[in-house]
Amino acid sequence: MSMWHVATLVSCMQLAGTAVAAPLQRVLFSEEVVAAYGARCLDGSPAGYYLRTVQGSSDWVFYLPGGGLCIEPYDCLQRSKGPLGSSKQWGPDYVDDSNVLSDDPQINPFAGFNAVYVPYCSGDTYLGKEKYRNIYLGDLYTNGHLILEAALDHLHNTTSMRSGVDRALLTGGSAGGIGTLHNADWLSR
Fold first, then answer.
1. Who's near 35: CB < 8 A, 6+ residues apart?
2. What is the pLDDT along the chain (189 residues), one digit of tens a residue?
3. Termini Cα distance of the chain
């Protein structure tokens, strides 16, 4: 089964369960990482990800959530004031007990994978590649792909990912599903 088929299957299935998953821990990028990669949310706050590692695993699952698309300057400005456009309101951890990030092997075939949740704060379906403000959208930042680049490099430099990756699954919902489709080939390189 190809990676595309697995990602599509996982994106479509609804996993059910009552067990509470171990939380993923927030990792916000340092100013050095933000400057080097342009990994900013719409409002310019540092982007980041949530991580749960699994001892001895060299498998990784990445989930990109949805949240619509930033189109008009007014919409983008409003979005930049909340968690879909700023990291300022992100909590210290993230729990997902009903998706590919669940650590319950009875409901999730990827429970033994290292889990990464990349919050959607760029409004651009994880496609933006410009480090600078978007003058057409109210001088906000739209650089979702750069956030993914920074996350992968950061994980490679700070986790067991540096020792190698056996299997990786990139999946998402809604805007994150679009981001999955457009970034899967890049991730597989």
1. none
2. 444 444 444 443 433 444 456 899 999 999 999 999 999 999 999 999 999 999 999 999 999 999 999 999 999 999 999 999 999 999 999 998 888 999 999 999 999 999 999 999 999 999 999 999 999 999 999 999 999 999 999 999 999 999 999 999 999 999 999 999 999 999 988
3. 18
Angle between the 3-12 and 175-188 helix axes, to the nearest 10 degrees?
160
Q: Name beta bridge partners: 26.
A: 50
Report the alpha-carbon distance of residue 31 to residue 58 in Å, rounded: 28
Measuring CA to CA, how many Å separate 132 from each of 42, 43, 83, 104, 161?
Answer: 11, 12, 20, 41, 29
Helix (H), strand (E) at residue 11:
helix 3-12
- The model's pTM: 0.89
Cα–Cα distances in angstroms (integers) from residue 146 to residues 54, 121, 139, 171, in the given order: 26, 12, 17, 17
